[in-house]
Amino acid sequence: MQGLRTTSFYFALAALLALFFADLEITTKDPWFEIQRLSHGFAHPRFLDSSSLLNALLKTLAFAFQGVMVAAILGFLLALVFKYFWVRTFAAFIRAIHELFWALIFIQLTGLSSLTGFLAIVIPFTGIFAKVFAEILQETDQKAELSLPSNTSYLSKLLYTKFILAWPQLMAYISYRLECGIRSSAVLGFVGLPTLGFELESFFKQGDYAQAAALLYVFFMIIASLKYLLKPLLIPFYTLAAFIYLPPAAEISWSLVATFFGQDIVPISLQNNDLLAFMDWLTSMWHTQIQEGILNSLLLTQIALVSSAVLTLLLFPFASKLFFSKVPRAVGQSGLIIMRSCPEYLLAFVALLVFGPSMLPAILALTLHNSAVIAHLLALQTATLNFRADKSRGLNLYFYEVLPRLYGNFLALLFYRWEVILRETAILGMLGIPTLGFFIDSAFEEIRFDRAILLILITALLNILVDNVAVYFRQRLHLTSQPQSL
Questions:
Q1: Domain shared by 431 and 393, yes or no
Q2: Taking every pair of C-alpha atoms in the chain, what is the biggest distance, in angstroms?
Q3: Neighbours of 352 (CB within 10 A)
Q4: Residues 205, 351: one domain?
């Protein structure tokens, strides 16, 4: 327990120091006026065009089911050979690049097509599935496998021992990833793909908060109903329907693809075989963009990580039957569903309208979303705790009996979200916050693909580094290597 407290203290101290360097300025003249307009819109939602809403909704679901289910299959295959270094490296690299960045890359090759949306979800989700599935399979009970005859084939061992034992966890994680896939699919609309995010961005920019609220309420209802709709036997039918409704297709100009990979993403200095000029270009990029982008990304990540931790510890009792009765608990659980259903990008976009461009909207968005995810999982874990008949009540129960038992799992979940938070800080830069994502988005807008690809590679390497640091802390503190249902 001493190690957990020490680690928590230094992480909190690092976040406190980061606050001194973060830009938290509120730049709008009257944020309360915008808050009032938002509140009025959300209190009086309205639908004007149900056909466009239905079209955007169906495309959002189609991208999610196609991408997640194909990624689950590919990820499972990679998980079987995850012991090889090149497989682990490949999976880490593809999952380190956010879906929006993959979308921005494929837009240059396949346009605003259904294939772009499909690939933008399949690629990073495959890397995520590979890692998590490999850990789930590794942690299955080995007794059944050891009891088989020595000449049993690898495939038989896999199917009749590990696969059967891990099946509930595999399905639980696929269901969770489908929820994530729907959020990711919606966010793809912010780069032009015809999903709910495209409609939401249009309404928010126009100040039509009533229609935006109506769309969000529909989105929340879909996320909330997933646990009833995602029955294992129905998922293949949903996936098949998604491919029939929106088959991944695009008109591809292979000459443009060759130009993109052969010239557009290659710096001029390398095309001219001028290594000295290339080093000068890298140095200039470091001083003007990379250094600032990395610093702001890490500052934002550290602040959001610790603020998510604090808010999680405040929120999870409101969804636990240990602390509240049925009605207050239902309100608390509904609040967590809303907070975790909203993609960070959308939350930050709304906060940006209210507070203006700074790190504050990003911190609020990352904190609200991630704390809701972790609080939900901790609340579920409280149901598995056993207590004496004379257990404490209220604050004493929380501080002296529940929190000490859950704190290790809480930190494990937090370290798992660390890499996720860093990935999200990158895309939040597209809203004007000077993280690496800000410079990536600027490079795409200026058609400087060499800069964009370099910055995306830097973002991926930074994510891989943070993920390895998180793994180090989990191993050093002997935390659960794979939290349930994460």
A1: yes
A2: 78
A3: 23
A4: no
Return d(Cα 344, Cα 243) in angstroms, integer.
27
Last residue of a domain, one of 221, 252, 283: 252
Q: Which domain holds residue 226?
A: 46-252
Residue 73 banded pLDDT, cuts 50, 70, 90: very high
Distance CA 91, CA 7 (A): 28
pLDDT digits (tens, 9 = 90+) for 97-135: 999 999 999 999 999 999 999 999 999 999 999 999 988
- Name the one residue in this structure whose structure tokens are 């001219």: 272
344 with 393, same domain: the answer is yes
pTM, two decimals, is 0.87
Considering 252, 282, 303, which residue would you say is the last residue of a domain? 252
In a domain, 189, yes or no: yes
Structure tokens at 166: 């891990």
For CA atoms 137, 142, 143, 147, the dihedral sign is: positive
pLDDT in tens, 289-337: 999 999 999 999 999 999 999 999 999 999 998 888 888 888 998 889 8
pLDDT cut 90: percent of the chain above it: 40
Spatial distance between the Cα atoms of 425 and 345, rounded to a whole number of angstroms: 9
Q: How is 258-324 classified by DSSP, letter by letter?
A: HHIIIIITS-HHHHTT-HHHHHHHHHHHIIIIIHHHHHHHHHHHHHHHHHHHHHHHHHGGGG-TTTS
CA 464 to chain centre: 15
Q: What is the DSSP letter of 429?
A: G
pLDDT interval class at 485 (50, 70, 90): very low
Residue given tokens 């490949």 in the structure block: 90
Burial 124-144 (b: 16+ CB within 10 A, else e): bbbbbbbbbbbebbeebeeee
- Residue 238 and residue 307 in one domain: no
Would you give the distance in Å from CA 106 to the centre of its chain? 20
Distances from the Cα of 337 to the Cαs of 101, 207, 284, 327, 383, in angstroms? 27, 25, 45, 15, 18
Q: What is the CATH classification number for the domain harbouring 57?
A: 1.10.3720.10
Assigned token pair, 341: 């259903």
Q: How large a percentage of the chain has pLDDT more than 70?
A: 94
Q: What is the pLDDT of residues 20-67, one digit of tens each?
A: 988 888 877 778 888 888 888 888 888 766 777 888 889 999 999 999
114 and 37 fall within a common domain? no
State the total domains in the chain.
2
Hey, what are 36's tokens? 């009032």
Does 435 map to a domain? yes
